[in-house]
Design a protein that fits this description.
The chain is an all-beta fold and about 425 residues long. About 5% of the residues lie in helices and about 25% in strands. A hairpin with a 7-residue loop joins β9 and β10. The longest helix is centred in the N-terminal third of the chain and has 6 residues. It is elongated, with a radius of gyration of 54 Å. The N and C termini lie far apart (about 165 Å).
Length: about 425
């Protein structure tokens, strides 16, 4: 056969283990070209320092050897080896996860036991792991009559968990918080300080402290006073300044009627919801308008209030200190707000027997639509006049003999003007 370059040979699409390759034997000594099957080539060589990528399929092998020695070094992520003489144990597999060296817990095949609930335990005498029954041969779950913990200093001090109070067919879970727990303090139920959020949403009810005379004298303290004077039991709490009481009523006293108010019923020593028009209620519905009013103890109207759409001005009543005026004034958003006091029908507005004092000058409107000032002339002067008093005389006392004003100068009446 003529010589042919290797690069000119026909490419093999898929190699088989029986295919052969040309190989130079003893290239450094007496080189001789020979042949070798692919299967022999792969089984006859040890790869040192090689890096493999992709999938390495060793599924057809009867075993697979990984590095093993008395003191293997696994110090990079993914490295694995068998430590054949790890201290106080039979040979174990060691590997590195990129953070630290880890050991796979393993045991001789003879130590495997297919018994339910058996656990892996270390046998110091044999320097190996084995499977044994737990709790001295008892299987889980153990009877709640069996102690599960003993004291480290005194083995006669035992702890057991009682489960008889759990509902039949129910499993309850005890979750340990990341904190020390003093069960003695919980048993005493006194002096405990809780922090964070406590969720009682799954509970049917929550009991808070309750007694005949509870003490709530620090901010946040709360209790039910079961015999508070002249009332049914009410919740009391402290806001850091004083003791406060939550107004409450028996559930049967709740009424879903619009505008009903909460009132105290002295006969029953409890609060209840009543109509605001009931006798004795201060606020009552105004039967003559869409507003409300103030009733007397007989249920009769004292004052009623009527509303105006988009109102911005209103009436204010203001008290006064000793020797000062009390005020009935018009106020609101407008810069100038008028005040009207009106009688009904032919009724008049009377200011009583006290003198009327104008804080500023009186202005009488000259509008044709507004009635003029009407002053009744009289034939006799007012009794017990005060300086600067004025009245309209019908001509009986006026110097002109006709109608005119009379002015008191502090001593006598003087005629002013006249017709």
């Amino acid at each position: 056969m003529a010589d042919t370059k290797t690069t000119a040979l026909t490419a093999l699409a898929a190699a088989a283990e029986s295919d052969i390759l040309p190989i130079v034997d003893d290239p450094a000594g007496t080189p001789v070209t020979k042949k070798i099957a692919i299967s022999d080539l792969l089984t006859a060589r040890t790869f040192a320092g090689a890096t493999f990528t992709g999938v390495v399929d060793a599924g057809g092998a009867s075993s697979f050897e990984i590095p093993n020695s008395a003191t293997p070094t696994v110090d990079a992520a993914g490295e694995i080896a068998v430590d054949t003489s790890i201290t106080d144990h039979t040979g174990l597999i060691k590997y590195h996860d990129g953070v630290e060296e880890l050991v796979v817990v393993a045991m001789p095949s003879a130590n495997l036991v297919a018994t339910d609930t058996y656990v892996v335990s270390y046998n110091a005498a044999n320097n190996e792991f084995e499977m044994v029954a737990q709790s001295g041969g008892s299987s889980l779950p153990i009877d709640d009559a069996t102690a599960v913990v003993k004291g480290s200093a005194d083995a006669t001090k035992l702890v057991r968990i009682e489960a008889d109070g759990i509902t039949t067919g129910t499993t309850r879970v005890i979750t340990m918080p990341d904190a020390d727990v003093d069960l003695g303090a919980l048993a005493a139920k006194t002096g405990n300080v809780y922090t964070g959020v406590h969720d009682f949403g799954g509970a049917g009810s929550l009991e808070i402290p309750n007694s005949a005379t509870p003490t709530v004298d620090a901010a946040g303290e709360i209790a039910v006073d079961t015999t508070i004077t002249d009332h049914t039991g009410l919740i009391k709490y402290h806001d850091g300044v004083e003791e406060l009481v939550v107004v409450a009523m028996p559930t049967a006293n709740l009424i879903s009627t619009d505008a009903y108010v909460v009132a105290y019923n002295a006969a029953d020593n409890e609060f209840e919801m009543v109509s605001p028009t009931a006798a004795g209620d201060i606020w009552g519905a105004d039967q003559n308008s869409a507003g409300y009013g103030i009733d007397d103890t007989n249920g009769n109207e004292l004052v009623t209030f009527a509303t105006v759409a988009s109102a911005v001005n209103y009436l204010r009543i203001k008290n006064g200190a000793a020797g000062q005026f009390v005020f009935l004034e018009a106020i609101g958003d407008d810069t100038d707000v008028n005040l009207m006091i009106d009688g009904k029908g032919a009724g008049v507005v009377r200011f009583g027997n006290s003198p009327v004092e104008f804080y500023e000058k009186a202005i009488w409107s000259d509008s044709a639509s507004i009635p003029p000032l009407n002053i009744t002339a009289r034939g006799s002067a007012p009794s017990a006049p005060a300086t600067n008093d004025i009245y309209l005389d019908d001509g009986t006392n006026h110097a002109s003999g006709g109608v005119g004003f009379m002015w008191y100068d502090g001593a006598t009446w003087q005629s002013v003007g006249g017709i």
